[in-house]
Specification:
The structure holds two protein chains of two kinds. The two termini of chain A are 14 Å apart. Chain A is globular, with a radius of gyration of 12 Å. Chain A contains three helices and no strands. By secondary structure, chain A is an all-alpha fold. By secondary structure, chain B is of the alpha/beta class. Chain B has two domains: 11-440, Rossmann fold (3-Layer(aba) Sandwich), CATH 3.40.50.12780; 459-559, 2-Layer Sandwich (GMP Synthetase, Chain A, domain 3). Chain B is 30% helix and 23% strand. Chain B has a nine-stranded mixed β-sheet with strand order 2-1-11-10-12-13-14-15-16, sandwiched between helices. In chain B, strands 4-3-5-6-7 form a five-stranded parallel β-sheet, with helices on one face. In chain B, β5 (143-146), α8 and β6 form a beta-alpha-beta unit. In chain B, α5 crosses α6, α7 (129-139) crosses α8 (151-157) and α9 (228-238) crosses α10. The radius of gyration of chain B is 23 Å and the shape is globular. The chains are: A mainly alpha, B alpha/beta. Chain A binds chain B through residues 16, 19-24, 31, 33-42, 44-45, 48-49, 51-52, 65-66, 69, and chain B through 61-62, 101, 126, 148-153, 278-282, 285, 307, 461-462, 493-494, 497, 512-513, 515-516, 519-520, 523, 528-529, 531, 533.
Chain lengths: 84, 573
């Protein structure tokens, strides 16, 4: 069975942005931008990941810190592009 | 209502009467006396009868809160100083690094290190292992304070740091055993030390080592001395206008100079209560923080202000921000739109301030009560002689409105004393009797300075300087990259962001996945700040006939500017 979108995004965030010794629990609802796990500069790489993975183009206006602030928020954003 | 008449007299009047002696007198310091920043920011404030006053209100990202009085500050800085000196055997003059998020141990540890005479080396906790290694190697650092989450980065480079003897973990919970060289230090449970013989530093004793990036070579360690307090105390008082009943918030990270000069020394030498929030950026969280703690004086950065501006004024209205009374900004030029927006959103304008790691204190600024010209840097701080000089002759430009390089007459108390291990580069900063800031500006008929841009290739992103050489070197370590050039490209929020131009080695094809891989490669090696926000794959890079990459050609194209003289260009773009 294919991995769900939210699991793909969650795994990517954990693997790419949590440092090796960072044992914070990250769930679908964890604030990743305002919680300081992904900073505003790194957000661009998360956006490029989503665009590459799902072959979409997310306009800058939609790539707000709010829209990226949790895995669940990202899932809502991706739905706008037909990704479920 | 408390009296908040600005401490600074009307500008022209202040310029005539100001002397650094005013600061010394207020601090109770005479030339030749012992001066230790750690002591002046804690013990001295307690002696002034403010032992029970709150020094720090700290809030973590999940809302947890810690509070420390000036007496806590005094005792805990003693505990840290004693631990370093007696338990670890750290000697005066040794370099002790602080590599932590914005946790209380960072702020209090800073003063503790200074109290026992070591040189404190704060480093931005988001640095990757390579950025960390470069700076620790250069400073031959003896000890480092860090958190569990950053420990792997330190462990990974420990083998290349023979000088690093002690890794102090401030949040060790015993869950995993510490290794050789590692020691736990839990500030909340540490024995409070009431009396400590503070190291008898004098004006020229080294205090802080802040690393800053240049166009070429490795980052340079700007070395400050305890005398910097004279400038930092009085500029915090006059420019930030911090009064006794103010609640102050400096949003800068102490990994950078604003976070120490004004996030620690300026605030606490004035006996101010300051707030710190250790969380990522979110407009509502910031406004909620101001409302909750009734913040009155707010020192922030244009990047943050523009990000708030993007969220609009409606969100501002959801909060009661009536406690705010003075706003200031630093990091990069504050554009006129942001100044005007702040008037609309908060009922007052942000006061732009200009200074650098090397100056140690604010040198050109807009002052409380002074007419603000939105978009202007303001005027030189009284006591600072500033001008713009010709880019070739370094002679001050008399005609108004002509662009030159910002230059300062050396001698103010917080000027750096050298670059660590790099006196040669330090000397190049002085020409014709002036210290050259490396920024270009013009001065108008009324004496206001107007920023134009950097005079070198250093990238100012979100108020932080990033050296293109460091980024290019990291890029070249990626197996697919043959050649690279890094420049700053315009960005509406961060002023500039890093853009990289890359030629690929044979066998590699450009695609989005490779772009992402290279971005993450640099982010993990250096930091998110240094990560190219955009990568352009090109067939060749513009070079001089001697083979040097001409970044300015790439930059001019990106900014839509004139390319200028390209007679030395080897190839057509």
């Amino acid at each position: 069975m294919a991995e769900s979108v939210k699991d793909v995004v969650l795994e990517y965030v954990k693997n790419e942005y949590l440092e090796e010794g960072d044992d914070r629990e990250v769930t679908y609802d964890t604030p990743i931008i305002s919680g300081g796990i992904v900073d505003s500069f790194s957000m661009v790489s998360l956006k490029v990941f989503l665009e590459t993975k799902y072959k979409i183009s997310i306009p800058d206006a939609k790539a707000s810190p709010e829209a990226f602030d949790s895995v669940n928020n990202i899932v809502v954003l991706l739905k706008e592009f037909g990704i479920e | 209502m408390p009296n908040h008449t600005p401490f600074m007299k009307p500008y022209e009047e202040e310029v005539k009467s100001f002397s650094w002696e005013i600061s010394k007198k207020e601090l109770g310091y005479k030339d030749g006396d012992i001066i230790n920043i750690g002591e002046f920011c804690s013990d001295r404030i307690c002696r002034m009868g403010k032992s029970d006053k709150l020094a720090l209100i700290w809030e973590g990202f999940s809302g947890e809160e810690k509070r420390y009085t000036f007496n806590d500050l005094r005792q805990l800085t003693n505990s840290i100083a004693k631990f370093l000196r007696d338990d670890l055997g750290i000697k005066p003059g040794d370099r002790v690094c602080l590599f932590m998020d914005k946790v209380p141990e960072l702020y209090i540890g800073f003063l503790g290190v200074l109290k026992m005479g070591a040189i404190v080396q704060p480093l931005f906790s988001a640095f990757g292992p390579e950025s960390l290694l470069t700076r620790l190697q250069d400073a031959t650092t003896t000890a480092i304070f860090t958190q569990k989450k950053h420990l792997p980065k330190v462990r990974n480079i420990l083998g290349e740091l023979p000088s690093l003897k002690h890794i102090i973990v401030v949040d060790d919970d015993g869950a995993k055993p510490l290794r050789e060289h590692e020691v736990a230090f839990n500030m909340d449970n540490v024995e409070r030390v009431d009396k400590f013989d503070v190291y008898p530093s004098t004006a020229e004793t080294p205090s802080v080592l802040h690393y800053t990036s240049g166009t070429t070579g490795k980052p340079k360690g700007a070395q400050h001395v305890h005398n910097s307090l004279i400038s930092q105390y009085i500029t915090a008082k006059y420019v930030l206008d911090i009064h006794d009943d103010d609640i102050y918030w400096c949003t800068a990270d102490p990994g950078w100079v604003t976070g120490t000069s004004y996030g620690i020394i300026g605030a606490w030498s004035n006996g101010a209560t300051q707030c710190v929030m250790d969380a990522g950026f979110k407009a509502e969280t910031w406004y909620k923080f101001i409302e909750k703690h009734k913040i009155t004086v707010w020192y922030s950065a244009p990047t943050a202000i523009r990000a708030l501006m993007k969220e609009g004024t409606e969100v501002v209205k959801k909060f009661n921000l009536s406690s705010l009374r003075h706003l200031a900004s630093v990091g990069e030029p504050l554009n006129a739109e942001a100044v005007i927006w702040s008037q609309e959103a908060f009922g007052m304008m942000f006061h732009d301030t200009f200074w650098q790691t090397e100056t140690g204190c604010i040198v050109v600024s807009n002052y409380p009560g002074m007419k603000i010209k939105p978009g202007s840097m303001g005027k030189p701080f009284p006591g600072i002689e500033a001008t713009v000089v010709d880019l070739k002759t370094f002679v001050p430009i008399e005609r108004k409105g002509i662009v030159g390089m910002i230059a300062l007459k050396p001698g103010w108390p917080s000027m750096i004393r050298t670059y660590w291990n790099n006196e040669v580069t330090y000397k190049t900063k002085f020409q014709n009797g002036w210290y050259l800031c490396g920024d270009r500006a013009s001065i108008d008929e009324e004496g206001y300075f107007w920023f134009v841009g950097r005079d070198d290739d250093v990238i100012n992103t979100g108020g932080h300087l990033v050296g293109p050489f460091e980024i290019e070197s990291a890029l070249l370590e990626h197996p697919a990259v043959a050649e690279s050039a890094a420049i700053g490209k315009p960005d509406p929020i961060n002023m500039e962001v890093v853009k990289a131009f890359i030629t690929l080695k044979p066998g590699y094809n450009q695609d989005k996945m490779l772009e992402l891989e290279i971005m993450n490669f640099v982010r993990k090696k250096l930091s998110a700040l240094a990560m190219p926000q955009e990568i352009e794959f090109v067939d060749s890079l513009p070079k001089t006939r001697s083979g040097k990459i001409m970044r300015r050609v790439l930059r001019a194209k990106e900014w839509g500017e004139e390319i200028g003289d390209i007679s030395t260009l080897e190839n057509d773009m």
